[in-house]
UniProtKB/TrEMBL annotation, chain A:
Keyword terms of this UniProt record: Electron transport, Heme, Iron, Membrane, Metal-binding, Respiratory chain, Transmembrane, Transmembrane helix, Transport
UniProt name for this protein: Cytochrome C oxidase
Keyword presence, Electron transport: yes
Subcellular location: Membrane
GO molecular function, one term: heme binding
Transmembrane segments: 40-63, 83-110, 122-145, 173-196, 216-241, 283-299, 311-333, 339-363, 375-398, 410-436, 448-467, 487-513
Record-linked InterPro entries: Cyt_c_oxase-like_su1_dom (IPR023616), Cyt_c_oxase-like_su1_sf (IPR036927), Cyt_C_Oxase_1 (IPR000883), Cyt_c_Oxase_su1_BS (IPR023615)
PROSITE patterns with a match to the protein in the record: COX1, COX1_CUB
Cellular component GO terms held in the UniProt record: membrane
Its membrane topology: Multi-pass membrane protein
PANTHER family from the UniProt entry: CYTOCHROME C OXIDASE SUBUNIT 1
Organism: Methylobacterium variabile
GO biological process: aerobic respiration; electron transport coupled proton transport; respiratory electron transport chain
Segments forming domain Cytochrome oxidase subunit I profile: 22-559
Automatic annotation (TrEMBL), chain B:
Location of the Heme-copper oxidase subunit III family profile domain: 49-222
GO cellular component: plasma membrane
Keywords: Membrane, Transmembrane, Transmembrane helix
Chief localization: membrane
Name under which the protein is recorded: Cytochrome C oxidase
PANTHER family per UniProt: CYTOCHROME C OXIDASE, CYTOCHROME C OXIDASE SUBUNIT III
A molecular function GO annotation: cytochrome-c oxidase activity
UniProt membrane topology term: Multi-pass membrane protein
Entries under SUPFAM superfamilies matching the protein: Cytochrome c oxidase subunit III-like
Localization (cell): Cell membrane; Membrane
Amino acid sequence: MVDTPIGAAGPFPGSEPDEVELYHPHSWLTRYVFSQDAKIIAIQYSGTALAIGFVALVLSWLIRLQLGFPGLFPSIGPSEYYQIITMHGMIMVVYLLTAVFLGGFGNYLIPLMIGARDMVFPYVNMLSYWVYLLAVLVLVASFFAPGGPTGAGWTLYPPQAILSGTPGHEWGIVLMLASLILFIIGFTMGGVNYVVTVLQARAPGMTLMRMPLTIWGIFTATVLALLAFPALFVGAVMMLLDRLFGTSFFMPMIIEAGQRLHYGGGTPILFQHLFWFFGHPEVYIVALPAFGIVSDLISTHARKNIFGYRMMVWAIIAIGGLSFVVWAHHMYVSGMNPYFGFFFATTTLIIAVPTAIKVYNWVLTLWRGDIHLTVPMLFAIAFIVTFLNGGLTGLFLGNVVVDVPLSDTLFVVAHFHMVMGVAPILVIFGGIYHWYPKVTGRMLDERLGLLHFWVTFLGAYLVFFPMHYLGLLGVPRRYFEITGLGFIPASAASLNAFISVVAFVVGAAQVVFVANLIRSLRHGVPAGGNPWHATTLEWQTPDTPPRHGNWGARLPVVYRWPYDYSVPGAAEDFLPQNQPVHAAGAAP
Amino acid sequence: MSLVLLYLAGLGAVSGRWLARQHLAAKPWLSAGPSCTLPADGGGGSAAKLALGIFLAVIGLLFALLVAAYGMRVPPGSAGVPLDPRLLWLTTGFLGLASLLLHRADRVVRRGAEDDAHAHLLAAVAASLVFLCGQGLAWRLIGEAGAGRTIDAAGSFFILITLLHGLHLAGGLAALAWVTFGAARTGSPAGLARSIGLCTLYWDALLVIWLVAFGILFRTPWSGLIDVLCRPPA
């Protein structure tokens, strides 16, 4: 290893932009409610996202009640069913996953992991959270609006989304669109902040190629989100105008109940383009932070440097770029020029290459590592397996000839729940178990964590593996009731009932997680500053939990990359990023 | 979506050029020790300017999507927006004038003539307000003609694009008003110069976005180019 002598590099430049001053709170209200501290904002984001996520979890129970035991619960009619699946999908994808990864992990980890005191624009950061909260409240308000929430499906496809036959066409769709517009405005405030903070506020010595992969993942996902959300914004505004002011951006000529509506000339396909131009990058907006977090969890808990760091960085960038040229593989069944179908099938296959590189590198990081099967590590390994499974079925669906017959079946539901639902949520859990000691100063209870992990992991597989089989049988998705279809054997109903029972158990296991979070706040084992013996900067703060400003009087100086684990000859099996070279024991 | 992909390719080229200078081929596991190259390799310039640049890139994409949507939705033979374009040429002139005035203010404030800069800022605010009023008049004329809900949607797009552009301008005007009536009187000369520089960049973006939107909504000398970029192949 090549050592650079200390001091040879000369004086370090300051890492904080001159024109931005750290805000200091003056009251309880500005410290904990209208806080400009990224760590508090992260907790606010995560708390709100998890709360609305639990609403979506309960909605998934209602979906399973209906699918597993049709007719048993008369309060769930067709309209309610569509409203439930719509809200479940939209909440999970946008208001939980995006918000937790970027608003939660992003806010907490970016300043700490790059050695900054806070986000570059703390006030805008605070506004970002409050606009997000407003978006959530507007969304929740639709449950109580006349007609209830929209039942248009989470893709909100026009023309049916705003026609009178669709539940929630009065207020539900309006509130949904307004909420999405607010969410995007709020996210843009936060997103610009994250990007500028990563680019401008890194600690001395923290080159881009010394950033932990968590930061690379969050950074690239934020760039993706900044470029993908405008498409959803445009689609939402145009549909809102169609709904409220009678324009015809997406609405073709329609005869409803024998009467010709005033719409005409619009193109629903245009909305699909806009939606999926956002929708596919959204998969990676969620996946890239998960990739980064998993990389760091695996390296830390296997006591081994990440395999192929440069490849991992390049793969993140490549996936980010490619994610913008695959959107139309969601639209094969809408019909398109066969050459376009070929193009999008090809790009979909190509994007699997950098993704596969990441999977190989995770496995090779584990290879001959000193693997500690801690709860975060278990969740990380579970993610790799689950993402691989979900990714493989994605390769099936990326091909036009396979996608067309499977598109409207439960196979698609199983695929995207594995890759977009279960996999990232496993990472969220892993991340929370990993960083909770830094956030609170206490460890989460390990036995409860193990219980939570095994029930969640095995349960998720018992739910979604059989669902692939149901899909191959041809069991359609989006159907309120699957009866009277001669080609579906009676055993499919039994399997559906089984899936539902397991889903209830998995859902109930999340209560264990919440109880653990609350109980450990007071009764958890004190964690100390660096319980995992990790190398990255967030574990090297002078205080745990870190105080406002993170670093005390002096910012850290970074001397090495974030994966110096088990370095031969070193005194310990980890070398923190801010540990000077001469203090690392024998020459690493 | 060709226009959008072209726009993204442009952003990708800028990002790629920047990334190429970030030593992404470095082997960080071989180079323990401090590095004096930071944070300058991260940009080093003004955080506010970088943030504004990113924000404008996002806004630019939003309008590129709207223009692409226009190309996909409005048929090539459409009669277009039923409005005399001379009104829009006039308002365009005022937006261009506002942009020029801000450039002028930027130059004079760097020479230390803050009073001169203040006068230019006031004139830029006034020109921008005239532009907004002109757009408002155009909305009224279109509304009276009932063209906001036509089948070919050209009028609807006019309302939508100009509404979002107007909101974008209104946000900028709030900042410009703060600079003109607040920072120009109480802030430091360096801070004032920085703020005016940001406003100038913002107004340049407003002007470019408007010119592109104008080019697709009405026949202008550059409309053919925009048509090529945003109309799907026949």
